[in-house]
Amino acid sequence: MGFFKTFDGITLAYHGPSGADPLICLPGGAMQASSYIAGLPLEHVLRLDLRGTGDSGEAPKETYRADRQVDDVEALRQHLGLDQVRLLGHSAGATLVLLYAARFPQYVEEIVLITPSPRVVGIDVTDEDRRELALQRDGEAWYAEAIKGFEEIWAGNATPEAFAKAAPFWHGRWDDAARALDDHPRNDEAAQEYYAEGAFDSEQVRAALKNLDVPTLLLAGEFDVVLPPKRAQEYADLFPRAQFVVQPGAGHFPWLDDPEALAAAVQRIP
Asked: Which of 103, 131, 177, 244 has a CA positioned 20 to 30 A from the CA of residue 71?
């Protein structure tokens, strides 16, 4: 584990090798400690604990907004002495990756987006999109109870209890590993600020991506209700050099479902 001071004096922590050519991984949640992606089956992974999470220091509430954390990623690049960075973002962490790339394209060597949140690029995933995926899983032992949670959410009753019922739909396999990940802690106050008003303009982000001439992988899960494959294809089409992969049988956390398949996809980035 290493530490560095970011632009406003907050001490941030990172985990993994700090040598040449690390793959800097930014966690989702939003605002979960990076320990939940510790199992990524990839080489040279360096995980950043975002401010207010994991082993990083707490920070003023307003600085948890995603665009304001771009400077933290840049401070890490400078701390590591890298001319360019390879960035991986999972879920909401992809938002931070793309905001960094839009602001500092000259420092980006490669991008990996694992089941990324579509909010930053303004892609709308509808209830019907999610229902279509959910109905494909009616043979699962947990389906009857889990679909009740989704029905409550779709009816406008998006309570924590409803999301808890529907939790299996976020995973390719609902087993002990998935349950452990589902219980992983996050900074709820920071999560509320991450996407606060003014964090980004999705049209401006999309315009910046058109000129982002770097190798990009967007990996979707076959059953991911956060970014269903047909919406993920729209997402991938925003990049000039995107490789689009749908991992069979995977949910929102594809390294749990088939680590070998995820590793092989990342290794194939041109």
From this structure: 244
* Torsion, CA 99, CA 104, CA 109, CA 110, rounded to 10: 10
Crossing angle of helices 93-103 and 202-209, rounded to 10°: 60
Q: How much is the pLDDT for 72?
A: 98
Token couple for 137: 């899983």
Residues in the chain where the model's pLDDT stays below 70: 18, 270
Q: Would you kindly state where each structural domain of the chain is located, as residue ranges? A: 2-125+186-267, 127-177
- Assign a CATH topology to domain 2-125+186-267: Rossmann fold (3.40.50)
What are 196-205's pLDDT values in tens digits?
A: 999 999 999 9
Amino acid at the residue 78: Q
Burial of 169 (0-12, 13-18, 19+ CB in 10 A): buried
Full-model pTM: 0.96
